[in-house]
Amino acid sequence: MNYNPVTALAIFGILSVFLFLIFRPEKGGFWKWKKTSKDGGKTLIEDILKQMFHMEESGKIADIHMLRDTLKVNEGKLVYIISRMAANDLLNIERDRLILTKSGKEYALSIIRTHRLWEKYLAEKTGYDQREWHQRAEQMEHLLSREETENLAEKLGNPIYDPHGDPIPTSKGETADFNGVSLSRLPKGTKGRIIHLEDEPPHIYEQILKRNITIDSLIRVEENGKNRIVFYSEGEYFTLSPAVAENITVLVIKDDDFKDPGSFRLSRLKDKERAKVVSISKEMRGESRRRLLDLGFVKGTPIRVDLKSPIGNTKAYLVKGTSIALREDQASKILVKKEKI
Amino acid sequence: MEKEPIDKILDLAEDLRWKIGDDFHDELTEGIYADAAEIVGDVTRSENSGGRSRLDTKIDRIVTSKTWGFPIMFLILAIVLWITIVGANYPSSMLSDLFLNTIRPFLKDLAVQINMPWWLSGFLIDGVYMAVAWVIAVMLPPMAIFFPLFTLLEDFGYLPRVAFNLDYLFKKSGAHGKQALTMSMGFGCNAAGVVATRIIDSPRERLIAIITNNFSLCNGRWPTQILIATVFLGAVVPQYLSGIVAVSAVIGIAVLGIAFMFFSSWLLSKTVLKGEVSTFNLELPPYRPPRFWKTIYTSIIDRTLIVLWRAIVFAAPAGAAIWLISNIDVGGQSIAGWMIDFFDPLGFLIGLNGVILLAYIVAIPANEIVIPTILMLTVMVTGVAAGEGAGVMFELDSANETAEILRAGGWTLLTAINLMLFSLLHNPCSTTIYTIYKETQSVKWTSIATLLPLILGFIVTFLVAQIWRIFIG
Amino acid sequence: MSKNTNTGCESCPQHIPDDVKRLGVDTGDADYVVALAGNPNTGKSTVFNTLTGLRQHTGNWPGKTVTRAEGAFIYDKKKYKLVDLPGTYSLLSTSEDEEVARNFILFGKPDVTVIVVDASRLERNLNLVLQILEITDKAVLCLNLVDEAERNKIEIDERALARDLGIPVVPTSARFRKGIPELTKTIAEVASGEIVCKPHRIKNMPKKIKNAVEKLSSELRKQFPGLPNSRWIAFRLLEGDKTIINTLKKGELV
User: Fold this and answer.
1) Which residues 73-112 of C are in CB contact (within 8 Å) with B?
2) Alpha-carbon gap: B276 to the closest alpha carbon of chain A (Å)
3) Domain residue ranges of chain A, discontinuous segments joined by +
């Protein structure tokens, strides 16, 4: 046999690159093949319906060119699919304008229902990072049957809102009220509660997550200018660009409801301070939330810092006579208020 | 059985659930704790409102301090490992003397007296008995020392503090601070380390800890590392340095194992395991003086003997297999010979040889019998005059003689280094695999835990071999 | 305190001060089934070992007992099977060990449930106690680790506690076998019905929840007149517990 270590290394290198290209998470050829192999246009039809629904919601009318650009498919295929959809009474073609029919709207709502339910499921019952929820739901919405969707809803206790704060349409196509205003449009001094964080586009969502901005937090707008928006929330000041603020929806509340501006995040509690638990953020979900409650992190519980880990930000807090260690991201989702001595 | 009223109740429940909203669980728990606070206020009087004993707080301030936290931790780990490795030497050699030099000849004589055919006595005594005896002699003493020591620390309450100190490192790789302990337990025995992961109550982190436990160099592999490091690495440097070089090489391998553990924890948490539920909570319990004798007793019964029993169950058939493949001839060569020929090319490619690969296959029940099997097979293949015959495992007291046999088998410095690497990075022993299956109840995770280190082992030894041959020759 | 028993041989039979025969794992034909519940790290397994004569390992680690252990003892000519449930902080969550504990107390219908609590951390432990008292009304509170509480200068009025909870309270220090004879006796008295418990029911709930629970549990009682824990079932239904829903559908409760 003709053995040469250099050749062996080269063969090994080529093989690894090859395997990497095929099995690379999400973008690998294998996964792409798996995604498109058994479909037959269903995914595209549903994506078109969803896109048209969102456009009509915001008062726009869809046409083929717009769809081609947003969905990135070739025009021939799109025309064919759209004519099939028109034949199936999902949409009407009026010259170059496309309008959803009643059954098309219902179909679109059922897709959105599945999408938001799946996001809720991922948030409550799995450990996927919130950056991944949207992408995974994008795939799942095409795969679940109506029955599976209803089973899922039942298992989750028929939730009303998805983890981003969007209302989940019911199986009859009704949606709960949604009276939020975009943060970017709120004047200085407005008080409100964050009710929705938009997860698209991803790079803006990433900005929101990085700042640790959470749903259900009470805020007060401190400054609203052309270049930046500043608001106060949970003991901290947040400065955002208008583009990011645009994607945060706030429910304006009356002054009386803006309770207790003195509360702040447990992660900011200093060494010898004594505090009481005010609440656990809605962002703390599922099993993690239940654990914290069971361990005694409930409203009114006295709490203080007991120990600090020699490296990193894990701290042990003294709660009801026991020292319990929490990581910083957990502590930042617990609101506390300094105790009056 | 009427069905209707029940459906009515369920409908009512569903209806009420919508009305009371999402916060039912929170509000119920708050309510229960409010009741609890009332009762406690009613029945207790306490001078110590914080609830934690002063002494505990004092100890904690020291063992988690920036200055003393880590030195104390490493010192304790080093002492435990040192006592285990050094302390196990004497009972181990006593046991192997008893099993191999006293009982074995006695059994052999007995077999001759009752006219047992050679193949049966070979199969039973040279095969089954030898493997079992070997496993007991090498495995029992270190475990009987390591586990009680570890259990004493556990009962005292120190271990959760270690998890607390190290949590940051493990968090970075997507794991739980408590993995520090299951990992340390793995230095004693991977199967016990896998069982110990029960203390991690978050599903994702527990699986990570189970799958990566094998990267802790266990008791069964320390002797292999020490022997090879002494015989081959120690020999290339001047006499006065050889001890230090050998010891650093072994420690280096153990540290490399820890590095691989972090790396694969990170890899797993970002890929196959990212969908598993992940929570974190770590309670730091009060310190309690351990009850010495009780601890010794329970740790020996609970951990040592159970693990040992499992190892014996797996070792007995392995001993039989080793004897059979060495003694059954097919077409003028033993089965072992054929297998060695078959594995030789692959072995060469990764800087090892067919003998080593075959030894790792038949010695899957326990890492302890890898070296004796390698020696036996090498002698069989090369025809060097040593050992006790085909299918009979042996070891030599003299390191130099061991080296001579291995060199006769074609071993070089590269073979030695790659054997050390492969000993760290290969599939877990069958006891551990079985334990992983019992703990996870999943073929998928068991296969990943088995194959991941093996694949890593092939890649690492392959790369080392090629680079070695390009640059060193 | 308790210097006389801590000799390292507390598991030897001649040291047992009461007339209990410890049977280890021989649990067949028991007259009564006793469940042992409690928070992690309260010495629950020590209590179990002391009562049964077994030697399950107990680490100073929250959450050590994951599987369910069983043992038995004979007291006053009656045989008691003791089931050691996994240590949990609560019974309301979805984790596996909580499900095991919850289902055993609810469906296994033990004759007595012994709840082991850490006397120094009573408030945290009461979370579980109050939940169990919603499920069963035959319970004994084992106030364990009283020696530690004493060292921490925490005084507990056991009588007041028993009155507030409506169940007998036995102070113990299982590591040193203090209070174990009293505990066995109390278990026997509750099992035989000599002591009748009037367990505490959770009071502090927001109005809307209280109303919902009342409505649902009265509906349940109408349907299943003998149901002792209709409030608990109502809690579980409001949480959407699938197991309970399915059992109700099959008509297997009661």
Assistant:
1) 90, 92, 95
2) 5
3) 39-100, 181-257, 264-339
H or E segment to which residue B88 belongs = helix B69-96
Strand-pair category, A218-224 with A229-233? antiparallel
Q: One fold for both A181-257 and A264-339?
A: yes
What are A90-123's pLDDT values in tens digits? 888 887 788 888 888 889 999 999 999 999 999 8
ipTM: 0.86
Who among C95, C151, C208 is closest to B20 (CB)? C208
Q: How many CB atoms lie within 10 A of CB C103?
A: 15
B467 contact residues in A (CB cutoff 8 A): 5, 9
CA distance B47 to B53: 11
C62 vs C33: which has the higher pLDDT = C33
- CB–CB contacts below 8 A, B to C: 184
Q: Is residue A219 within 8 Å of residue A270, measured between CB atoms?
A: no
Contact (CB<8Å) B283/A322: yes
Confidence at A130, pLDDT banded by 50, 70, 90? confident
Q: Which token pair is B304?
A: 């040592």
A290:C240 CB<8 A = no
Residues of C in contact with B440 (CB under 8 A): none
User: In chain B, how many H helices and how many E strands?
Assistant: 22, 4
Indicate the CATH number of A39-100 among 1.10.10.10, 2.40.30.170, 3.40.640.10, 3.30.200.20.
Answer: 1.10.10.10
CA distance B416 to chain A (A): 19
Amino acid code (one letter) for A58: S
Cβ atoms of C239 and C90 within 8 Å: the answer is: no
How many Cβ contacts (< 8 angstroms) between chains A and B?
A: 141
DSSP state of C178: B
CATH for the stretch A181-257: 2.30.30.90
A155 touches chain C (CB under 8 A): yes
Is B11 within 8 Å of chain C by CB? no
Which pTM value belongs to this model? Answer: 0.85
Residues of C in contact with B290 (CB under 8 A): 60
- Chain C contact for B40 (CB, 8 A cutoff): yes
b/e map B306-318, b = 16+ CB within 10 Å: ebbebbbebbbeb
Contact partners for chain A, using 3 or more CB pairs closer than 8 A, are B, C
Q: Say which of B13, B30, B33 has its CB closest to residue C238.
A: B13
Contact criterion met (CB below 8 Å) for B402 and B375: yes
- How far is A200 from A246, CA to CA, in rounded Å? 11
How large is the average pLDDT for residues B405-425? 94
CB B350 within 8 A of CB B421: no
CB burial of residue A173 (10 Å; 0-12, 13-18, 19+): middle
Rounded Cα distance, A113 and A267, in Å: 36
Q: How confident is the model at residue B403 (pLDDT cuts 50, 70, 90)?
A: confident
Tokens 């294998």 locate to A30
Q: Which of residues 293-312 of A touch C (CB under 8 A)?
A: 293-296
Measured CA to CA, the distance from residue A76 to residue A67 in angstroms comes to 12
Please tell me which residue of chain B has the smallest CA distance to C218: B9
Read off the pLDDT of residues C98-136 as tens digits, 9 standing for 90 and up.
Answer: 888 888 888 888 999 999 999 988 998 999 999 999 999
Distance from the A89 Cα atom to the nearest Cα atom in chain B, whole angstroms = 35
The domain defined by A264-339 carries CATH number 2.30.30.90: yes
